[in-house]
Amino acid sequence: MMQTERLRPYFLILFLVGVFALTVAVFWPFLKPLALAAVFAVVLQGLHQRISRFLGGWPSASALLTVIMSVVLILLPLSLIGVLVGNEARSLYLSLEQGGGQSALAGLFSSVDETISRIAPGLGGFSQDLSTNIDTYAKEALQWVTGHAGEIFSSISRLLLAFFVFFIALYYLLKDGKRVRQMLIELSPLSDREDAGVFDRLELAVNSTIRGSLVIALVQGILSTVGFLLFGVPNAILWGTVAAVAALIPGIGTALVFIPIVIFLFSVGATTPAVGLLIWGSFAVGLVDNLLGPKLIGRGMKLHPLLVLLSVLGGLIFFGPAGIFLGPLTLSLLFALLSIYADLSRAA
C-alpha cells in the first residue's frame, strides 16, 4: 500500500505527459491556423473593442462583426492580390519563354556595354552572354514558381478546413480572449504579475512587429504598384509585391526593385517615365518609413529590421505562407520571454 502511495505522483505525472503528448498530436495539424488566429486576435483587438462599445458590449455580435470586417478588408484583398500576382508571373514566364524578355534584357545590357566600352574599350563585349544567362536564370526561376504554385492549392479540402478553423478560432479568441488569458495565467507556475507581464509584452511585440515592419512594407508595396502603373511598367502588381518583400530588407528596401527598373526605362529610351518613377520612389515610397514608422511602431519593442527580415524568411521556409506572420511572432515571443527572464534575474 505504501509502495502504491509513493508511486502515485509519478504515475500521475507520466499519465499527464502522455495525455498532453496525445493532445498536442491531435491539435498539431491545426497549429498554423490557430497561431494565425492568435496573431490576428491581438492585432484586431482595438477594432473589436470599438465595435463592442458601439454595440453596447454585446461580445458575440462584436466578435462576429470583427471577423466579417477582417475578411472583407484584409483576406479578400490579399487573396485577390495573390491571384493577380500568379497571373502576372505566368505572363512574364510565357514572355521570357517566347523570347520577349531576352530582347528587353539584351537592350538593357547593350546600353551598359556601350557605356563601358567608351570608358574602357577593352572591357566591353559581355552584354550578349550576360543577358542570355540572366534570361535563362529568370526562366528557370519563374518555371519553378509556376510549377510549385499548384502544390499550394492541390488540397482544396485541407485548405478550406484550415480557413474554417482559423475563423472559428479567431471568433472565440475575440469573444473569450480575456477568459482564455486568465485561464493560462492560472495554469502557469509563474506568479500572476509575471504572467501578466509576459502577455503584455508579447501583445506589445506582436503589435509593433505586425503594425510596424509588415504594415509599412505593405504600404510601400501598394505605393510601388501605383507608381509602376502610373509610369507604364509591365507586370506592375508582380513587381509591387516584390517591392513589398524588399521593403523588409534593412538599409536597401524598395530601392532593390526601383533602381533596376529605372535603369531599364532609361536604357530603352523611356526617359520621362524613368525620371518620374525615380522621383516617385524617392518621395512617395521612400518617406513612408519616416512618416508612418513612429506612429505605427509607437513604443513597441522595435526589433531590428534584419531580425524581422530573417524571421519572415525563416518563417516562410518553416511554416510556408503563414510564416510571414508566424516567423515574427516566434521572434516576438522569444524577446518577450528574454525580457521577463532578465527582470527575474535582476530581482533575484
From TrEMBL:
Keyword terms of this UniProt record = Membrane, Transmembrane, Transmembrane helix
Q: Where are the transmembrane segments?
A: 7-28, 34-51, 63-85, 152-174, 210-231, 237-259, 264-288, 308-341
Short name of one Pfam family for this protein? AI-2E_transport
What InterPro entries does its record include?
AI-2E-like
> Where does this one sit in the cell?
Membrane
Reading the lineage from the top rank, the first entry is Bacteria
Presence of keyword Transmembrane:
yes
> Could you tell me the membrane topology recorded for this protein?
Multi-pass membrane protein
Where does the protein principally reside? membrane
GO annotation, cellular component aspect: membrane
Q: Which family does it belong to?
A: Belongs to the autoinducer-2 exporter (AI-2E) (TC 2.A.86) family.
- The name under which this protein is listed is AI-2E family transporter
